[in-house]
């Protein structure tokens, strides 16, 4: 990709509230796993059940 396109793309993401941060696949997996755990705990605490 060209640098100008990268900057435009990052600006569009930032406007949507998304922060671009370089990472590794392992770090992304850790983040996703932590989010799943957190959301599962919130759903359980709220007493929600699947439909």
Task: Describe this structure as you would to a colleague.
With 51 residues, the protein is mainly alpha-helical. The chain is 69% helix and 0% strand. The protein is elongated and about 50 Å long. The model has no long low-confidence stretch (mean pLDDT 89).
Given as residue ranges, the uncertain stretches (5+ residues, pLDDT < 50) are none
Radius of gyration: 17 Å
The average pLDDT is: 89
β-strand amount: under 5%
Distance between the termini: 44 Å
Largest sheet: none
Which structural class should the secondary elements be placed in? Answer: mainly alpha
Number of H- or I-type helical stretches: 2
Give the tally of β-strands: 0
| SSE order | HH
Indicate the overall shape.
Answer: elongated
Give the helices and strands, then pairings.
Layout: H1 3-15, H2 25-46
Please give a quick description of this structure.
This protein has 51 residues and is an all-alpha fold. It has helices at residues 3-15, 25-46.
Protein traits:
51 residues; mainly alpha; 69% helix; 0% strand
